[in-house]
Specification:
Elements (H helix, E strand, L loop, with lengths): L4 E5 L9 H12 L6 E2 L7 H14 L5 E6 L1 H13 L2 E5 L5 H4 L5 E4 L6 E4 L1 H8 L12 E6 L7 H7 L5 E4 L13 H8 L13 E2 L2
Parallel strand pairs: 1-2, 1-3, 3-4, 4-7, 7-8
Antiparallel strand pairs: 5-6, 8-9
């Protein structure tokens, strides 16, 4: 029986070289599961990014797939989870990026690749088209969020995923401190189990 496949979707102006993506890949390599994780370099165009992720899901449709979505990647993961009925772990996910990024229209540069592009209203329209109003199965999603996220209001994700299993930690930041401590919980969730550990220094909040 094939082991679960993970597809990691990075956030806005990020890349496969992001810290969490590299940490997760390193953990999978250490476990002898390097072939069980894919981290695509997503286009800055939301429609293209979704098409990239869809192509991977379809390519591996015979496997049990779990998405890991960080920030904007979490927003994408909700849409993909609904379309393909796959599990998704959402790490400090964006909930309404089409509103958040409206103040950032204009020149942008990818933090890792240096790619320069112009963020336009068309980007926002493509994001809005991916908005998920209702979750068909909230148990398909696991929310991991930290209250001191300096980029996103964590309460939006808590409300959106109020019927899903979640871990809310006091403190932290948008990058998600001590992400590696939650990797065992991600692996368990991919197998249908919710096992959320206490993380030293980041107390959990009763949800």
């Amino acid at each position: 029986m094939a082991t679960p496949l993970f597809i990691y979707l990075h956030g806005f102006n990020s890349s496969p070289d992001s810290i969490k993506a590299r940490q997760f890949q390193a953990a999978m390599v250490a476990a002898g599961r390097a072939d069980d994780v894919l981290v695509p370099a997503l286009s800055h165009w939301p429609a293209e990014a979704i098409a990239q992720a869809e192509a991977l899901i379809k390519q591996h449709q015979g496997r049990d797939i779990t998405l890991i979505g960080s920030s904007l990647g979490g927003y994408y993961s909700l849409w993909l989870g609904e379309q393909y009925q796959v599990r998704a772990v959402l790490v400090n996910p964006a909930v309404r990026p089409y509103e958040l990024l409206a103040e950032m229209l204009g020149q942008q540069s990818n933090l890792y690749t240096g790619e320069a592009y112009t963020l336009t209203k068309q980007h926002l329209q493509q994001m809005l088209a991916l908005d998920v109003a209702t979750l068909s199965d909230p148990q398909r999603y696991l929310l991991l969020t930290q209250t001191d996220d300096e980029t996103l209001d964590y309460r939006q994700a808590v409300d959106k995923l109020r019927d899903s299993p979640m871990l809310i930690q006091r403190g932290g930041d948008h990058g998600f401190q001590q992400f590696t401590a939650l990797i065992p919980a991600i692996l368990a969730f991919s197998e249908g189990r919710v096992e959320l550990p206490d993380v030293p220094g980041l107390p959990s909040v009763d949800s």
